[in-house]
Amino acid sequence: MLGALLLAAGRSERTRGLVTSMPLTRSVVDRFVAGDDLEAAVGAVRELAGAGLRVTLDHLGEDTRDAAQAEATRDAYLRMFEAFERYGLADGADASVKLSALGQALPGELAVDHAREICAAAGRAGMTVTLDMEDHTTVDSTLETLGKLRSDFPWVGVAVQAMLRRSEGDLRDLVGEGSRVRLVKGAYAEPGSVAFQGRHEVDRAYVRALRMLMEGDGYPMVASHDPRIIDIALALAVGRSASSYEFQMLYGIRAAEQRRLAQDHRMRVYVPYGADWYGYFMRRLAERPANLAFFLRSFVSR
Ligand code: FDA
Fold first, then answer.
1. Architecture of domain 34-273 in CATH?
2. What is the value of ipTM here, to two decimals?
3. Where in the chain is CATH 3.20.20.220?
4. Structure pTM?
């Protein structure tokens, strides 16, 4: 209930204005976001790389209705690839891209064209790209774009949300050789008609999907902080080589566990940066009510 309210607030312009103008919000946001600019992201990535962690970089932004804004997001990714190459951080790094930030809702092929340019630049830098998955209304379009991109850049990956009832069907087309699938539980408020609603139902769907990925020929990316999911993934991965799958977690969440897993497994951290942190931050609050308490306490203890 509280989670659904926070997710609704995450899409409200009025609440955005209120939350982003609160003086102490920033210190709470900093737990989940590497910083406002590329320099801050580079600093965070250097620290993570020093601890043996791989990274995927997300230049924050979503739901763009403005072509100039979509272009600016594309350019931000291009600058990031250039900087990562220059600083020697590109090798093995990944970029996470939200098609809605590239103009997916705008008419024509704008988002596909921008995504193509992003993939071309990532490839030149020695990096890969993974498409984030947003709310269920965007899944068809995102998978269609994935298909177009993969014909030129076969290493492009995609996030699949276990909570969506359709995902097991989608995975049948995505478990083949060369595919890279990031399996997540799903962070958006979705109706019961399209998504499992209870935590246990979602967890069971996650395990079914995980089994499909681990039995498939692609490269599973197990994106979860849930200790039970991680144990199950380790059990299902028996017989696979250590370089044929990886774990992924979000920046600032279970950081000690990230480092522990990195000792014996491939572990990648999703590093968001940029000024447009509001939607991302609200989803992180919605995932865990304790985060909201922490956020509110920061005002009381001022
Ligand atoms: P679960 O929510 O059950 O959490 C398990 C434990 O992890 C909690 O008990 C707590 O200890 C810790 N935890 C989880 N979330 C926390 C938080 N916000 N703050 C503090 N602790 C927390 N979703 C989506 O819809 N589309 C996408 O493209 C992506 N992309 C993505 C990439 C990566 C690398 C990750 C790790 C996750 C995503 N997600 C996502 C988000 C995902 O769908 C999901 O909402 C979160 O990962 C939380 O689910 P868990 O699997 O961690 O389990």
1. Alpha-Beta Barrel (3.20)
2. 0.99
3. 34-273
4. 0.96
